[in-house]
Queue: 2 jobs
Job 1
Amino acid sequence: MYIEDTIAALSTPYGTGGIGVIRISGGQAFDTANKIFRSSKTIEEIHSHTVTYGKIVDPKLNDVVDEVLLLKMCKPNTFTREDVIEIHCHGGIVVVNRVLELIFKNGVRPAQPGEFTKRAFLNGRIDLSQAEAIIDLINSKTVESSKAAVSHLEGRLSLRLKSIREVLVGLLAHIEVTVDYPEHDIEEITGENVLENLIKIKEELITLAGTFERGKILREGIDIVIAGKPNVGKSSLLNQLSGSTKAIVTDIPGTTRDIIEEYVNIKGIPAKIIDTAGIRSTEDVVETIGVNRAYEAIESADLIIAVLSADTGVTEEDIQILKMIKNKKSLILINKTDLVEKNSISKIKQQLSECDIVLEASVIKDVGIEELETAISGLFIKGDISSNNEVLLTNARHKYLVDRAINDIEQALNSFETGMPLDMVTIDIKSCADSIGEITGESIDEAVLHNIFSRFCIGK
Ligand code: GDP
Ligand code: ZN
């Protein structure tokens, strides 16, 4: 068991919530609680995993700070596998800070970001990819992205990787015996055996690496820019997609002077949608700044929705915009179809025959929005993301290590082809096993650990 000093932090977000939960973890947790908690029972008398009502009292001044509920949890059945006290305070931030201060005066130090999770990892309760899944879960923006994190948290990625690593370690042991003790009784491992196993593992790792793009989209989301000349319905579209009226909609061309952003959920994909100022040359200085920022936003976007208006047809301004986004992933939306006849829509479509995806909509009538969302999600994710249970690689560190492991295997396969002796191949196999071990934390150094856990917020 890994033993350290006792730590505490506020585990709920800072601010004026209804309650604030303070968590204390470590060998001194119960002693400290005893000093500042008054109720009909002492901490020793309270049963593990039960809640007790009482008061937090400054022992020096005998001053009641807050009425609280206290949860006592004895190791090892706790998140950190240490003794844990949770204090559910009533108060706003001032009260929570006073309680924390009392705790820190009584033998406990403030937790660093991610330190509770780090202890859970170091005490063997979770492995590293699970710890990272906790960060992902805290940061996840849609149900689907949180599902991917939960699947990691349940250890599905770890299980998969552990079984691969076991095969590698088994191979290593077998090769060693074959090479070092030629006269042993164990069945000899042949080059063919090793080769077969390595090819299989390589395929498995490549499949896993292939899920990263999708995992990354779920985790980080995509940036979408809505582009188009003034008054085509860009802001209305943003409002429709986000279900709010944050963007200013007017019938005066050029009212969206700056960039407006909104986070929305498009069929499970977290998306940041940016409504740009109408793109056109203008004398108005404020508007010019907006237009320049629109160009920048288009450059860095993952997808551009170019909005045209059916009632004006394709104008010179539209053509300029289409030219500008020619090399970007984009789709074209012909809006305001409610204002025109069917055959004029067909005419517009003919003019746009060189564009890949052309959709129709009447944004204010909520027509064509569903189709638009389906098209967007189809551009980034093949198939239904929520229905399959495969393990997705969502973390850049994991992707890097899986790629390294694939590289090692390829190295090993190369050595085979050039007729190297078996024991030379073991170097690459070992390195592959190490790469995989770094994902789950079976082989990892302190610096990497520090880096990972510092990405948490305090109290997690
Ligand atoms: P933006 O300048 O491109 O952001 O355009 P807005 O979203 O501000 O819309 C300009 C005007 O067009 C507003 O009066 C909207 O109500 C109107 N509008 C937007 N979408 C539609 C549509 O589908 N049909 C019709 N008839 N009017 C629309
Ligand atoms: Zn607008």
Job 2
Amino acid sequence: MDLTALGDAVLAGRRGEIAKAITLVESTRSDHREQAQQLLLRLLPHAGGAIRVGITGVPGVGKSTTIEALGMYLISLGHKVAVLAVDPSSTRTGGSILGDKTRMQNLSVEPNAFIRPSPTSGTLGGVAKATRETMVLIEAAGYDVILVETVGVGQSEVTVANMVDTFTFLTLARTGDQLQGIKKGVLELADIVTVNKADGKHATEAKAAARELAGALRLIYPHDALWKPPVLTMSALENVGVDKFWDEVLRHRKVLGDAGELERKRHQQQVDWTWSMVHDQLLRRLDSDPAVRAIRGDVEQQVRDGSLTAALAAKTILDTFDK
Ligand code: GDP
């Protein structure tokens, strides 16, 4: 493969080649991985320029509808918008449910939008790695806004929060006891909380829910916190509040940027990413280590029949791996 030509084509923003380059970074073949790293090294100096926004929320909350409305709004402002998805569950079903072009009908035919469904390369770690590397390609290709969609499954929210500048949480009007149903973890990750479907007969309910959520958030954040996540209401379907949502994203960037936090956050994300790759690769090596494979059946059997404790078995496996 001519990596120089591919790199040039990505820099020129040629869609076919961008897709090809993404397929390369998603590949698990070792020769592809090496080529992908060469390509990324070449493109890295041209990356980093996009506003990176994560969008999470349960299925049905309106993520696709929001991305469609927000994407079209951003394009009208002159932006080039990429939509990526992190959906590790799609690796089980064999097909991605997110970032699906049919769900973003206007955006998918926009020349200034690039939509890519979630990679299906196995673990969340694998999906995250491919997505981060895709972000480098997309930024090098000149896209200046990246929207990363994820459904709140397991660790995927933390993973996406760790690859974006602004992490946003979409929810529906929930008050009182229903508030308990919202995972506390996701509120702690969110930079902006938005109550969607604030239209029709739900408009009042949505405002009340937003007030209650704002109260819950006040308990999480100290008075002097640099950024206190605002709670907005929006109707993605009727395109009401989408512009305000974007204004808050920009305000968040400005507050963080002025305090030097945006740069620090991005640098810390690189360090965290480094370690998460070390952890993933260690696990892969452990699983494929011939010496460990040779003893694992025996060790597992001894744990089952009670002749070895779990702790001693773990030590035996790790000692074997260390050698
Ligand atoms: P996702 O699964 O989070 O991506 O949710 P979708 O964007 O696919 O939306 C799920 C359903 O909710 C669809 O039928 C949408 O038309 C509807 N929906 C999305 N946003 C709104 C909204 O702001 N108001 C109303 N009333 N319906 C909405």
